[in-house]
Design goal:
13% strand, elongated, five-stranded antiparallel beta sheet
């Protein structure tokens, strides 16, 4: 009571008067509070030597209890001091995107483990070096007890040294239904806030043993890939005819295509056979459309290509990169492009493949 009244109150009053925020962090982590609990243990240890000098049994008992008490609160004080230091570190610009929480927790664990060895040494009156030497006999047990800690330590070092993961990174782990932002990296777990605001926790070592997708490169590049296809009904693919050519001549985006295939176009207008198809013209049109789109990066690959056909039609894939990589605006750009595709595809005599719906079956019955 005297210690708390003198030490805690005076220290608290002094901390509140200072302009520095560093001592506030040590006050918040209860470093001074836990330190005040060490003093009574020291007082009891010395007082016992005077009060119990004629009773060796009780003197030994009180000395052991006091020593264990002192060790426990010294450990708690050091751990609180490390917590305070870590809070100060988080205020520094260097901490942005870098999490050392795993190393802090490891150091605290080692301190607690060292304190446990000291307590064993006090209880059984064994030299600390002998206690450490005896650990070799229980290595297997210790490896089992600290399995998660060892795995977490190794994983934390690998993630940090290889720069695989940082705070604020957007990661995806399909097998664990994780798709969101890293909000915490500790020795044992990594917390990810999904875009639906749910928080999922995954063991740190699983990020090394399993594969995960980090979108940091995409965010730094400032672009995001669009890679999606539409399914064309194969039965609507045909050779170009004069009507389609006349329709195509009205489209400014097809001027280069028509110019490159001038002889073929002249043959078509004269009723002769051709190798040009409406799908080929559609791909050329969409390629020019993407090259002239304000939100598509023309310096990166742009493709409109046919994929292997299947029972659901002929996939025509668009491959390009949006200049906008933020999620919501990016989706708006992608949706706008495909809205336009579905509206313009019929002008080339093509049909989008779609499985029969109930209304289709009803129209057949009528």
């Amino acid at each position: 009571i005297i210690t708390k009244a003198i030490l805690i109150r005076s220290v608290t009053a002094w901390v509140k008067k200072t302009m520095s925020v560093y001592d506030d962090k040590y006050l918040e982590s209860k470093t001074f509070y836990r330190l005040s609990w060490v003093i009574p243990g020291v007082v009891v240890w010395f007082m016992a030597s005077w009060a119990l000098e004629e009773n060796l049994y009780w003197l030994t008992f009180v000395h052991k209890a006091s020593e264990i008490y002192i060790v426990v609160f010294v450990i708690l004080t050091v751990i609180a001091f490390i917590d305070g230091w870590y809070s100060i570190y988080q205020l520094k610009p260097i901490s942005e995107g870098r999490s050392i929480k795993g190393y802090v927790q490891l150091f605290q664990t080692l301190i607690a483990f060292a304190g446990l060895l000291v307590i064993i040494s006090i209880l059984f009156r064994i030299r600390l070096t002998n206690v450490v030497a005896g650990l070799g006999a229980v290595t297997a047990v210790l490896a089992l007890v600290f399995r998660d800690t060892i795995l977490g330590l190794v994983a934390s070092i690998q993630l940090s040294q290889n720069k695989m993961l940082n705070l604020g990174d957007w990661i995806t782990i399909p097998g664990r239904n994780i798709d969101g932002t890293v909000i915490d990296i500790s020795l044992h777990t990594v917390k990810v806030e999904n875009f639906d605001k749910t928080v999922l926790t995954v063991p740190t070592y699983s990020l090394v043993s399993e594969s995960f997708q980090n979108w940091k490169g995409m965010e730094k590049a400032g672009v995001r890939r669009i890679k999606r296809d539409i399914r064309i009904d194969v039965r609507s693919i045909c050779f170009l005819n004069a009507d389609l050519v006349r329709q195509m001549k009205k489209e400014p985006l097809l001027e280069a295509y028509l110019d490159d295939n001038r002889k073929e176009i002249e043959n078509i207008m004269q009723g002769e056979a051709t190798t040009l198809t409406n799908l080929n013209a559609f791909r050329a049109y969409m390629l020019e459309y993407l090259r002239n789109h304000q939100y598509i990066d023309e310096d990166l690959p742009i493709m409109v290509r046919d994929m292997p056909p299947s029972e659901t039609g002929m996939p025509v894939e668009l491959y390009c990169f949006s200049k906008i990589n933020q999620w919501v605006p990016y989706e708006a750009v992608q949706s706008g492009i495909f809205d336009y595709i579905f509206a313009v595809v019929t002008q080339f005599g093509l049909r989008v493949f779609q499985n029969p719906a109930g209304s289709d079956i009803e129209s057949l019955k009528k």
